[in-house]
Amino acid sequence: MRVARGFLWMLVGTASLSVPAVANPIAPNININANTGPVPQSSKCSSSLGTAPTPSESNYDTSAGCLHSKTHRECWDGKRNLWTDYEDLSMIPKGVVRKYELTITNGEIAPDGYTVGKMLVNGQYPGPKIEGNWGDTFEITVKNRLSNGNGTSMHFHGIQQLGTNRMDGASGITQCPIPVGKSMKYVWRANQYGTSWYHSHFSLQYTDGVVGPIVIHGPSSVNYDEEYTLMLTDWFHTSAFTLFYNETRGIPPLPNSKLLNGKWKFPCDSSDPRCVSSRGGFTDIVFEKGKKYRLRLINMSTTYMQTFWIDGHNFTVAAADFVPIEPFRTDVINVAIGQRYDIIVSADANTREQTDFWINMKTCLIPPGMAPVDCSAEDARTGIVRYNASSTKNPPTISNCRDQKTCRDEPKELVKPIIKRRVPPPPHNMLGDFYVSWDSPSNGSTASQDDVGWRWNMANSTFFVDWEEPTYSYLGLEGNERPFPQSYQPVYLNEKDKWVYFVINANFTRMGRVPIPLDHPIHLHGHDFYVLAQVTHDQFDRATPIEYNLDNPVRRDTAVLPGGGFLVIAFETKNPGAWLIHCHLAFHSSAGFALQFIERESEIFEQFSGKEVRLYHEQCEQWREDWKTNPARTGIRDSGA
Ligand SMILES: *[C@@H]1O[C@H](CO)[C@@H](O)[C@H](O)[C@H]1NC(C)=O
Ligand SMILES: *[C@@H]1O[C@H](CO)[C@@H](O)[C@H](O)[C@H]1NC(C)=O
Ligand SMILES: *[C@@H]1O[C@H](CO)[C@@H](O)[C@H](O)[C@H]1NC(C)=O
Ligand SMILES: *[C@@H]1O[C@H](CO)[C@@H](O)[C@H](O)[C@H]1NC(C)=O
Ligand SMILES: *[C@@H]1O[C@H](CO)[C@@H](O)[C@H](O)[C@H]1NC(C)=O
Ligand SMILES: *[C@@H]1O[C@H](CO)[C@@H](O)[C@H](O)[C@H]1NC(C)=O
Ligand SMILES: *[C@@H]1O[C@H](CO)[C@@H](O)[C@H](O)[C@H]1NC(C)=O
Ligand SMILES: *[C@@H]1O[C@H](CO)[C@@H](O)[C@H](O)[C@H]1NC(C)=O
Ligand SMILES: [Cu+2]
Q1: 132, 138 in Cβ contact below 8 A?
Q2: What family does this chain come from, according to its entry (predicted)?
Q3: Is there a contact between 131 and 28 (Cβ–Cβ < 8 Å)?
Q4: What is the pTM of this model?
Q5: Ligand 7 shell residues, CB under 6 Å
Q6: Is the CB of 391 under 6 A from ligand 5?
Q7: What is the residue with the minimal CA distance to atom 12 of ligand 3?
Q8: Which distant-in-sequence residues (6+ apart) come within 8 Å of 563 by Cβ?
Q9: DSSP codes, 540-592
Q10: Is the dihedral of CA 287, 291, 296, 301 positive or negative?
Q11: Could you tell me the distance, in angstroms and rounded to a whole number, from the CA of residue 523 to the centre of ligand 3?
């Protein structure tokens, strides 16, 4: 099935400039396991400083030689800065190699004071921070030491994996899962910088704990003195694998609790033996008056959009996902699942009456995406900013409620990427339509498994990949190329450096039914896509062209498909590989809300060394052997993504 054809327009080539190797201007502050010397890389030209900023941002120093500092975060190493094109590998810093080892195990934890069985990374939840500088090469060895028989794999969310599709960590696409007792080394280069997270891409494992933050230091559009990483998530007291059964019966599982950096106080019943309130608590961060703090917000949720604010403080937004943007001021921000925002907060609160302030986080909408949350029902208090490090008091409550605006992505007028790009207008007959719907398999969609239950569809068909036969195997990595089963939903993009456009459509009638108007955070692997339109409660009509946002549109790796509406995205075919696009609501993705782009098929395996082909095959052979006797083989299975 070739549902869409790439289309194009000549891409304006970026001049390839070369840079001599330079030392890293900063050393990240913590936990670097290894720093084993420079990355071999050839470079040809003399400068990669980009275009000057708009005159309104007059404090920026764009001169050659300017070095990254607290007062000039826009600079980097004197040769590169905030305006350097980070999607051109010849432009980015040489970097060093950073090694990490992530061991996945089962364990019991009580991050909010309620004991649950989860899966942990290096014995902890969330997993350790992976941190380095722009241009560094990361070598991350993932070891499967689970006792529940699950395979695993690791995806580095938002990392573009330019030329390294095989390191994308998507089980059933770019690899067989890592079998119990085995390990796999992921090697990739950080061409972008900013804030992100890694998570398992095996079934629902990330909901059950296999997650951690990624911080890549680089230029910033706003100055700051210090930084903190804040991981926001909803939290379940039941295994996601158990909850999935309900999802396939049309009962969306609701989270029990929430966590900020893996902590909260869940109001549990002390007669319940799992209730150990002493182990719950609030995450504290300390502010020193007069300083500016960069807070790296990461939404690792499974089900809900969250609204975030800090009592007594406004802030400036400096980046959306891995894309630095023109700064804008606000006092509250919505972060969808998988999204990140980097915000700069000045420690300038009025501290006469109080020195402690609540960090608040609250669910925006209740499924099915219609009813606003009853403001008094959910306790917004999630963490504490302290101007007095020795204080242990809870702050006085200021606001449990905030105007949550529309509970949608931040308005496009505010999110303006620093590195400006214009998108050629989409030809109106060349858009791929991906119809999103929630159906029983017998009603117009293809059943992927013989089990009963409801499934999500994308492009009129539910996604399912067999972990034993990943996309690469069908493409011929282990023998002859074979035709894909329909449930693999391959969309071929074979033309090089072309713009491709897609409508993800959630407002249409099929078999007398319309899709549930629920918001979905759509995530694409291997690219930052351009958001050309994001429309709520309206129908996409091919005959009546709409006004697209083409002039430096929002560009990111995760954007919300508004309930009852549609999303139009574009990207350039600059990165050969098999790349998933899926809903980041974990239960939806597991229920088939995904498809894959096969981008420049003939170039995908050219990226592999002989050793990599052998390792791929060995891992698959081991997985196939183990899977024969795995009890999870029968019964409800998820899409594999
Ligand atoms: C993974 O482990 C969970 C228990 O944690 C189990 O319910 C599920 O069936 C396992 N799935 C696979 C595919 O091994
Ligand atoms: C599944 O749904 C049923 C029916 O609503 C409910 O009673 C049960 O508690 C749910 N199971 C879980 C694990 O949430
Ligand atoms: C995280 O994303 C979910 C789903 O989009 C959203 O409901 C939630 O509000 C987000 N959390 C934060 C803190 O923004
Ligand atoms: C935040 O911004 C609003 C609107 O500009 C302003 O009314 C308010 O005083 C500001 N609050 C703080 C703490 O600076
Ligand atoms: C900081 O908090 C400690 C502990 O509550 C208190 O003893 C001290 O007076 C506070 N200092 C200031 C400057 O408020
Ligand atoms: C299929 O769709 C029809 C018409 O909407 C509906 O009556 C029927 O219940 C559906 N079947 C299943 C199995 O959901
Ligand atoms: C998907 O379903 C819609 C609505 O029934 C239909 O209009 C469209 O042609 C279908 N698309 C494909 C690719 O089958
Ligand atoms: C679908 O689009 C129509 C306009 O064409 C709109 O009236 C309707 O409210 C939309 N449906 C939903 C569920 O938002
Ligand atoms: Cu979804």
Answers
A1: yes
A2: Belongs to the multicopper oxidase family.
A3: yes
A4: 0.87
A5: 3, 433, 435, 459-460, 508, 510
A6: yes
A7: 306
A8: 368, 369, 370, 506, 516, 517, 518, 519, 536, 537
A9: --TTS------BS--EESEEEE-TTSEEEEEEE--S-EEEEEEESSHHHHHTT
A10: positive
A11: 14
The Å distance, Cα 504 to ligand 7 centre, comes to 12
* Residue given tokens 């083989």 in the structure block: 633
Q: Is 130 in contact with 188 (CB distance < 8 Å)?
A: no
User: Residue 641 falls within a domain, yes or no?
Assistant: no
The tens digit of pLDDT for each residue in 315-333 reads 999 999 999 999 999 988 8
- Tokens 């429309």 identify what position? 535
The string of pLDDT tens digits covering residues 83-133 is 999 999 999 999 999 999 999 999 999 999 999 999 999 999 999 999 999
Q: 572: domain range? A: 428-628
Residue 238 Cβ < 6 Å to ligand 1: no
CB of residue 253 inside a 6 A radius of ligand 2? yes
Q: Is the pLDDT of residue 260 over 60?
A: yes
Does residue 513 have its Cβ closer than 6 Å to ligand 6? yes
Which tokens go with 548? 């697209």
- Distance between CA 314 and CA 641 in Å, rounded? 38
Q: Residue 313 phi/psi, 5° resolution?
A: -135, 140
Residue nearest to atom 2 of ligand 5 (CA): 391
Cα 446 to ligand 3 centroid, rounded to whole Å: 31
Residue spans of alpha helices (H) in 443-570? 471-474
Residue 253 Cα to ligand 2 midpoint, Å, equals: 8
Please state the domain count of the chain.
1
Whole-angstrom distance, CA of residue 116 vs CA of residue 108: 5
Ligand 8, closest atom to CA 537? 14
What is d(CA 337, CA 52) in angstroms, rounded to the nearest whole number?
A: 33
CA dist 466 and 175 (Å) reads 11
**Rounded to the nearest whole angstrom, what is the distance from the C-alpha of residue 269 to the centroid of ligand 9?**
32
- Nearest protein CA to atom 4 of ligand 1, as residue: 148
Does the residue 32 lie in any domain?
no
Q: Exposure pattern of 438-449 as b/e (b: 16+ CB <10 Å)?
A: bbebeeebbbbb
Q: For residue range 229-254, list pLDDT tens digits in order.
A: 999 888 999 998 888 877 777 777 88
Whole-number Å distance between alpha carbons of 75 and 82? 6
Is residue 148 in contact with ligand 1, taking CB distance under 6 Å? yes
Evaluate: CB of 564 within 6 angstroms of ligand 8: yes
User: How far, CA to CA in Å, does 349 sit from each of 97, 287, 315?
Assistant: 40, 10, 11
Ligand nearest to the CA of 538: 8
Q: What CATH number is attached to the domain comprising 461?
A: 2.60.40.420
Which residues are bridge partners to 131 per DSSP?
A: 215
Q: Is 318 among the domain residues?
A: no
Residue 522 lies in a domain: yes
* Ligand 1 atom nearest to 203, measured from its CA: 13
Parallel, antiparallel or unpaired: strands 306-310 and 226-235 = unpaired
Instruction: Report the separation in Å between the CA atom of 309 and the middle of ligand 5, taken as the mean of its atom positions.
Output: 25
Residues with CB under 5 A from ligand 9 (ion): 520, 583, 585, 588
Ligand 5 pocket test: which of 354, 390, 392, 393 has the largest number of ligand atoms within 8 Å of its C-beta? 390
Q: Is the CB of residue 397 below 6 angstroms from any atom belonging to ligand 2?
A: no
Q: For the chain, what's the residue count?
A: 641
Cβ atoms < 10 Å from Cβ of 563: 21
Residue 10 pLDDT class (50, 70, 90 cuts):
very low
Q: CA-to-CA distance for 177 and 626, rounded, in angstroms?
A: 11
Among 4-18, 226-240, 432-446, the minimum mean pLDDT is found in 4-18
